[in-house]
Every structure is written in C-alpha cells, then in structure tokens.
Amino acid sequence: MHRVSLRRDDSYLGWLTELYGQPYIWASAGSNARTHQSERLEGSDCADFVTYGWRRLGHDVPYTWSEGLKQYTTRLGSGAAREDGVYVDARGRPIPFPKAGDLILFTRHVGALTVDRGVPGVLDLDDLMMHALFQSPAEETIRISGYGGTPIEVLRWKR
Prior knowledge:
Elements: H1 12-17, H2 46-56, E1 73-81, E2 87-88, E3 103-106, E4 109-115, E5 128-131, E6 138-141, E7 152-157
Antiparallel strand pairs: 1-2, 1-7, 3-4, 3-7, 4-5, 5-6
C-alpha cells in the first residue's frame, strides 16, 4: 500500500502536520526509535506526536510519555487558568505566551502551542495548540481541548 503524507512546511510545527490524518494510538510503540509507529506514520499518542516533529528536525530524542518529556525540555513556567481564562503563575501574574512550538503540559497530556489567539501576549484558554487526544491530531483552542481547566507547565525543547 502506498501512503502520501503532506506537511505544511519544514518547521517544527510543519512536521507535526505530517501526522494529521493518522490515528490516535495510546502508548504507540516500536522495538526501537526507527520502527516506532509514529516514525512509520501509523499513528501516535500526544507525547509521541510532539516528539515526532522534534525528531524530524534532527534531534536525537527518544519517544516517551508526557511527563518523560521534562528531561528533554526546559520549564518556562507553570500555573492555572483564572475565571477569565488567563493562565497565571503561583503569584497571580499572567503567564506570557511563549514561542509557537513550545509545549503545554497538562496532567498526562501534552500539546504544542501554535497561535496567540486570545489576550495578546498572554497564555489563555483561547490560544491554539496542536495535539492528539483520542483522535487524529488537530489544532484547536486550549479551551475545547478537554484540558482547559487543569494546571499547566510550559516547556521548551532543549537544543
């Protein structure tokens, strides 16, 4: 069987779009990194989805679970959403929207931030992320992702 995969561009987020249309596979696996289901475009879970793009950029990062990503990233901040949807840190200060492609880590779920669509310059529930959660990867607001009301950490891949 032949398969055609398209991607938006050669950026980190562009490589993630190559997995659009692929199934969600919880705890996707393979006997080694090269035979992993994500590498073969057979499907992925959330952590494997965000790892796939980083690997495509040439970084030697193993596939792992969402919490395991912490050893390959730098923590930029953490917090929770206020009633108005703005994420704030422990001191109540709004968390700045980081760079597109930074990761947003929830409890047992992760996505890649794409667009600062809500309050300009601030991370909030109306910002967009790419993620895979029980369906093919998609880009949607944090609010409708199913994790909008949970605490978060913002992570950046180590170079």
